[in-house]
Structure formats: C-alpha cells, structure tokens
Model the fold of this input.
Amino acid sequence: MKFWEAMTGSDLTREWKAFEVRAEALPADHRAAWEQIKGHLLPYSDFTGRSLLPILDSALVLLEESAADGQSVDEVLGDDIEGFCAALAGGEGARSHRDRWREQLNRNVARKLGRLGG
Done:
C-alpha cells in the first residue's frame, strides 16, 4: 500500500467496490444476508475499516461458496446473523466504536475532574 492510498483510503474504496460487484452476483437471499452482515459488522471496525476488510472478504466468500453449493442462508449462517457477526468480530465481548468512545470520554472526564478537585 502506498502512502497516498493509506491517507486517502482509495485502496479501501477499490476493495469495497469489488465486494459490491461480487455481492451483486449472489442470489437475492444471499445478497440480503450480505447487507445484514455489513450492517452488523461495521460497528466493530476502526475508523477506516482496514481491520474489517479481511473479515468481510471471508464472509462474502462463505456466501459465494454456499450459493454455488445450493445451500440456503439459514443453513450456512443460521437464524441469528447478528450473533454470527459478533462471533466473526471476536465474540460477544468484542469492543465497538461506542465502547471505545465511552472509555475515552470517561478518561477525559476523570482527568478534568481530577484537575478541578485537586
């Protein structure tokens, strides 16, 4: 990856578009599952999404292979796509943006209160 690509995210845009082209080739139920997977996984990503791309690629490969084998989405992912995504992201305890921001806010407030009280 070149510096300019890292700064602008152009490499991510290219990869994201490639994901979407691949997803368009999926049957309708698998495409709907792809949309749900993206929606449930994005909160676990960093600001750029770089950490999420390999996970999304693996999920898309799983959908592509299951569609090619004639398997339904329920056979592959089960009925709990949100739980599937949480497991992909590192389990139920995986930290999301909200968790990181809450911790940062709490540290900042504690630091400010420490200065005011001390």
Observations:
- The two ends are 48 Å apart (CA to CA).
